[in-house]
């Protein structure tokens, strides 16, 4: 089936539902029924439906890109963060104590804070530069209202950061790390921007300009961690339904990678009980069912 027709059909068939993330006030005001879908193919062509050009808060989707930037330097970050599913909520403190301040994986909040710390001062600006280049959209930026709202409600993330600092697993001051992390989560991008920016993972590490961010193994590893840890405590269900590496965020965005073919981004702010976009997962389920493009 032709991709433009396919994304239009999926957008017409899904029913957005669920509740918006209420714990960040600026996100709680978004319409849970909004929906956008974009598929970017390896040559950079984008097929979109719904509100695929409307910017939204990327939130935890940013964690894929900071991990990739850290791994592009070397593998050292793996001495500070694990790569196993956590089986706990994304902002849980419990495991950190029994595991001596080493977060289970880079996609729970504690792990993402360590990755941001690993990238060092200016992490969010580096991320922004990368996202602007890969998406081809120089207008991408931080939504200051979301950043302020999130920073004002960051007691839990600050607790995680200070707790890890007590185990010696932060290099920069805990509050500085949380501020960078909040900026990174508050970046606004559309589905079209994000699908294009995710293409390097479908191209086994090669960026849109033909240079390499990651080696073939590096890209494989980021995709593997997305598959096993990318959708909160529902990665098994996501693999079962969608069958692709994916990463979701509480803003309602989900990115997914079909290695060797395309990158997909879907956005719908209504979330299920485990924090994944209801219509987002449904749309990806339909996409892989209709195309047969999963990794299985
Ligand atoms: N900035 C959010 C937080 O730290 C991100 C959560 C998410 O999207 O999973 O709570």
TrEMBL record:
UniProt entry tagged with the keyword DNA-binding: no
Reactions catalysed: L-glutamine + H2O = L-glutamate + NH4(+)
The keyword Glycosyltransferase is annotated on this UniProt entry: no
One annotated GO biological process: glutamate biosynthetic process
Pfam families linked to this entry: Glutaminase
Keywords annotated in UniProt: Acetylation, Hydrolase
Family: Belongs to the glutaminase family.
Gene3D superfamilies assigned: DD-peptidase/beta-lactamase superfamily
UniProt name for this protein: Glutaminase
GO molecular function, one term: glutaminase activity
Residues annotated to bind substrate: 60, 109, 150, 157, 181, 232, 250
E.C. no: 3.5.1.2
Species of the source: Lentzea fradiae
HAMAP family linked: Glutaminase (MF_00313)
Subunit annotation: Homotetramer.
């Amino acid at each position: 089936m032709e991709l433009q027709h396919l994304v239009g059909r999926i957008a017409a068939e899904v029913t957005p539902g669920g509740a918006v993330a209420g714990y960040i006030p600026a996100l709680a005001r978004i319409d849970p029924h909004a929906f956008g879908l974009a598929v970017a193919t390896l040559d950079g062509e984008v097929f979109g439906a719904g509100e695929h050009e409307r910017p939204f808060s990327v939130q935890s989707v940013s964690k894929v890109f900071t991990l990739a930037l850290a791994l592009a330097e070397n593998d050292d970050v793996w001495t500070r963060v694990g790569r196993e599913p956590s089986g706990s909520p994304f902002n849980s403190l419990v495991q950190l104590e029994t595991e001596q301040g080493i977060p289970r994986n880079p996609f729970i909040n504690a792990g993402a804070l360590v990755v941001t710390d690993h990238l060092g001062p200016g992490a969010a600006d580096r991320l922004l530069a990368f996202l602007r280049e890969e998406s081809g959209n120089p207008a991408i930026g931080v939504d200051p209202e979301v950043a302020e709202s999130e920073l004002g409600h960051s007691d839990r993330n600050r607790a995680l950061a200070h707790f890890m600092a007590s185990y010696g697993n932060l290099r920069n001051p805990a509050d500085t790390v949380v501020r960078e992390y909040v900026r990174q989560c508050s970046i606004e991008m559309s589905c079209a921007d994000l699908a294009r920016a995710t293409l390097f993972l479908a191209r086994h590490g090669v960026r849109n300009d033909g240079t390499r961010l990651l080696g073939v193994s590096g890209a494989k590893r980021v995709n593997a961690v997305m598959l096993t840890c990318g959708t909160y405590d529902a990665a098994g269900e996501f693999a079962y339904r969608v069958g692709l590496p994916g990463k979701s965020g509480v803003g309602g965005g989900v990115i997914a990678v079909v290695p060797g073919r395309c990158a997909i981004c879907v956005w719908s702010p209504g979330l299920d009980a485990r924090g994944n976009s209801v219509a987002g997962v449904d749309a990806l389920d339909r996409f892989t069912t209709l195309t047969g493009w999963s990794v299985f």
